[in-house]
Amino acid sequence: MKTSKIIGIRYxxxxxxxxxPGRFRGLxxxxxxxxxLCFIGVVVSLSIGFAVLSQKLPSIENFAASFESxxxxxxIYDREGIHPLLSLQYPDIQAEHLSIDEPGxxxxxxxxxxIVIPSRDPxxxxxxxxxxxxxxxxxxxxxxxxxxxxxxxxxxxxTGIQKAIFMRILAREITEIYGRKAILTWYLNSAYFGxxxxxxxxxxxxxxxxSATSLxxxxxxxxxxILKAPALNPxxxxxxxxxxxxxxxxxxxxxxxxxxxxxxILRSINFIIFEPPEKKYEVQDNPIIQKSLSAAYEKFGxxxxxxxxxxxxxxxxxxxxxxxxxxxxxxQDQDKQCPLxxxxxxxxxxxxxxxxxxxxxxxxxTVMDVKTGQLLAAIDTDSxxxxxxxxxNVFTPHEPGSSLTPWIALAALNMGYSASSMLWDLIDPGxxxxxxxxxxxxxxxxxxxLRTAMTQDLLDPVAELLxxxxxxxxxxxxxxxxxNELPVGNADQVxxxxxxxxxxxxAAALIPFANEGNLTQTxxxxxxxxxxxxxxxxxxxxxxxxxxxxxxxxLDKGLAYLIYHIFGEEEQxxxxxxxxxxxxxxxxxGEKNTWMAGFTxxxxxxVWVGEKQETDxxxxxxxxxxxxxxxxxxxxxxxxxxxxxxxxxNISHQIxxxxxGLLPGDACPETASEVFLSGNEPSQTDNxxxxxxxxxxxxxxxxxxxxxxxxxxxxxMNIPAFAKNWAEINKVELIPNEYDxxxxxxxxxxxxxxxxxxxxxxxxxxxxxxxxxxxxxxHHIPEEILFYQIAHGNGFFPERWIEGFVGNGLxxxxxxxxSLDIQVLDPGLYDIRISxxxxxQRFYQAHTFITIQ
Length: 853
Description:
The chain is an alpha+beta fold. Helix content is 34%, strand content 20%. One of its GO terms (molecular function) is peptidoglycan glycosyltransferase activity.
């Protein structure tokens, strides 16, 4: 390579190396400027964000006052807000405000103070009051100071990241302003220990029957364990207390809070736990109160509700509830203070027996408002021969028995049946009823309308219908109405025994039938519930709509109306109430327990009365349920207008024959006006009852040969073969199975006879060449024949004749006068008739019978 070229290349490289440092210095300068601007932007954004958040930060000016004047207890009221039903407090537990190392004051025990810090907040005396940076965005309290902030400012902290930031800022501020000792004192006097116990002194008195001033080391460890998991307290979770206690011991060991001697003592200790007294209440415990409380717990949290300050306005109707309690709680003047409805139908002995049953036997009742879905009154008791009656705060499930038949009726209507569809009540060896089953009236009814089977508890035809509809489909339908505890196995037998239903679920499930197909409930956590709370006022007087109503359409208006009509019209109309109402008595096979349920357009009520002793008669238990239902319904409707149901547009009326449900024919003995979904009316004429021609002399089926003066028409029930046994037992007259043997008489009729076809000749349409039957007669009529006619009809006594060939001029003797086309006739028995009229208007006839196959 030339020297000049080498020099040129080296010069170029030198220039490149010379320019590089300057270029990179420029790039770093730009990057630094950009980073600085971004950092400044972040700082400014954070400053602005912090300033905005600071404006929302709650003031701690009155923080200390929150612990000096605690909230009033949470109270549940009736729907009018007049009567306190339940106050969440133990009136006999007087907890004291204790101090920490105050000379001359009442102080927490030293063991408790020594243990509670390493248990709850090990770094309490050293940190700033809030958790470290790793918890900065965690919205759950970690330190004791953060716990206090959440208790005092819960509604003002917001949620998520905002809550985390606010809580930790405020925890630092209160620690700096009030000091750690004050923070700890407030905390130990207000912390939640479960069972309405706030503060260590209340917890010590409830669980240990002693003051927190004298807690021993093991007792201190127990309270620390409860403080971490209030639900695992010795009353609510007796079985878990020991494990919870030992787990707390292990936690203290890991944190070096115990000596070896203390560890040995703590691991071997046993506790005697004391039961707390009853909560303070004004009325008996009942499910509505419990449901109201549970709804508040679910919305606000149990600790917050029990800490106090809430006024819960339940849906309970106080007057109605008191009447219900009066009827079911024994008192000396029970008959005067709360008389039974329709008592004039009872004799003195029955009246006394019913009162005895209602005040001593297990009883469950639920009363609901149809339009709002609100629970108005309820009671649930249990009893046994050897124990006193106990009032429950939940609804106890019971076997539903025949109280479920409305949903079988609904399923049938969905499948094209009608209220007038005919079913057969037979109770024979092949019936689906249990052995020994009898109808309530101890009769077997034979053919009945669907509505009759449902209302009179004729469970043989109902069980047959259930089987035809497929039980699993029927109970899946019922589940949509809230009846969720029906068995999968033996589903076809649940109308007799098995399954579980509460009066609440039954009363609610009936509401769509009363409310044009709609059920009103409230929704919570993806599930629907009946409404037990009108509204809640919090400690600041703010009104909260806790259970907003939700209307749930479950079925067509027309179907809802049909169910009402089945259980509320005809013989059911005004049977138990002086206003339109649908009712259903439910019975359990082999048991005396009885359901009585029903509804009006305004109120739905379900009653269950159980058996207490074998001496209780089924009749008295049943009457008790009925009269309790009547009394409660009359009370619930006080001041309400008498209203019924409007007939939906898709409902029609039709006169039908009873019990077939078909159009009335000439033989129909009884008719009724029935309701139908439009388009589902019957089009066939009744065939259960028929008018049959018989010979009045021998009561056999008449034929065309029976002398006309002997023929009468008699109405019979057309009994199918499977019901013949029932008909025989119940002496139902059957259609004769023999024909009148009387034939053509001698004398004038003998001058005219049919020679062919021969009597009872058989013609097979399939035979080759068999198309016609020639008709050959013989006559010796002594005068001129004006005309003759060939006719045929179906059966031995044709109701309708088909006239054929007409001719004149017959010669004496035998002759072929025509033929009958076999191929156009359906298979069956036919009567061939020859009629002759003479010039003097004398009339002659001859008959023969043939069979076409």
